[in-house]
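Two entries, shown back to back:
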Amino acid sequence: MRFKNVIFGFLLAIILYIAIFRTLLPENSLVFSLATFVYFVAALIYFIHWVFKWDWGGFVGSTIGWAGLFLNLAAFFIRWYQTHQAGFGYVPLSNLYESLVFFGLCIALIYLVMEFKFPSKALGSITFTLTAFIMAYASLKAPAEIKPLLPALKSNWLIAHVVTCFLGYGAFAVTFGLSLFYLIGANKTLSASLQVSLEHFIYRLMLFGFFWLSLGIITGSVWAEQAWGSYWSWDPKETWSFITWLIYGGAIHLRLIKGSKDWGGKKLAWLNIIGFASVLFTYFGVNFLLSGLHSYATPGS
């Protein structure tokens, strides 16, 4: 049944693509917008499944979620191809728009893979709402034009750094959704076994995200040394990345030292919510409020 979600999602993505676009290769931003709409629909179906206990809602929501993921991935590769058509091909991970839509892709991918193991699909309501809003923000607020790369971004380390960071961010976004779901349902709607499963997934995904964020900081440091001559310069983006790393590292340390009894449940959920707030500030707040060596990642870039 779960593998059928992937197949039906892929077929639905193809049908939506053909039904809406006349050309084989439309403008990439249109496909990203379609993926955003599909993510919103998936979130709505998941909410109906959660609130009204619609048995088929989980299957339908998951299928639509996979369709959105395939459309998001297709749009990514279309944009990649269209950068080459524009005469300066690059992997589309260089500016706010491209990083946002890749962020959405990572969240959807990590959640849908996790869903194969998770006993409840109601979590998709929170996860896909977050994914859809991130994608919508990209479409509405970030310039989508394809432009030549700035000199600082012309490095093979760009892909390694961005991919590792956003795999971490994507995992933290899913743990944020898991944590909200846990806090909303704790002692009310969640069974004891489901709470245990939920806590298990929160911790495992936090470890997964911490691993990739650590790699992201390392690859960023190597890139910084090549671009600016220093592995670490306490740039605002670097500083807040380190703060985020300390929050999640501290949560993992407390869990290992004190055990799940003292640092599990609601405490673990709140630490992940605080951690994701730091992720959002690292990603958005630093760009909008602080200036530094990473200023090329601002909305106007």
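entry 2 starts here
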Amino acid sequence: MDSTEVRHLDVHGYRRAYRIAGGGPPLLLIHGIADSSETWKPVMSMLAEHHTVIAPDLLGHGDSDKPRADYGVAAYACGMRDLLGVLGVDEVTVVGHSLGGGIAMQFAYQFPERCERLVLVSSGGVGREVHPLLRLASGPLAAETGLALATSAPVQGLVRLAAPLLRRGLRMGPDFDHVLARYQGLTSMTARQAFLRTLRAGVDMRGQVITMLDRCYLTAGMPTLIIWGANDTVIPATHATVAHHAMPGSRLCVFPRTGHFPHHDQPERFVDTVVEFIKSTHPQKYDQEKWRDFLRTGHTFPPETSSGT
């Protein structure tokens, strides 16, 4: 298991793409919206020196099938469980970026007995704020026909020509090139439909809809690391502090001069931070009685952090 080439298997009749490399304790890498497992290539080989690294293409993304299906975070979390089941992996440290962070949190909530540690990277699901382009894309003007026009070859050509102006106008800093590459990948009808369904499951015109803050107390006892870029223009870095306060015992690491993609902007530091975190913590062992006690007691984080705004 030492190749990072894309592999395929069928789960529930759908073709799922994934990469797997290395050996040792398993590490699941979950990418963000309109992205794929390719996003992890800058860090995957380095992480594979210490771990068996599994990086899937989410359903509707990358080289996986793009059916008319449920693209909510709960469905994605179930998909991760089933993929791990097919691969024979029972317990795993989960790393999630952006939308993948929300899926990672949902995985830890739905399947605590399978989640040893949690690493959230510029994660969704903390507060409402998100880049205006994503709010706009969730609205009625971004129907399939509108998005088809916006991603057509002539318009994409104009966007490339206007990139220097857009870079300044959109104020996306280090994130512009990464976001532009994801936009340029929405050329097929099935990819656009999956993107819209995924986006609208978690974002509307007012911002992010789903919050993980109401259940963050359940991570008490689960080693949790939060990584964020100080210059994130997609999801503001202020969300990192909110998540840190809401998750008992979590570690927070904010990378300076870094945007929404810390694993791209500072890959060596990213790997060192994740590997050191795993080496210095013990995996959570699920305790059903303790889980029941947490549920009965309820959340313990300050009320002002619970609104997600």
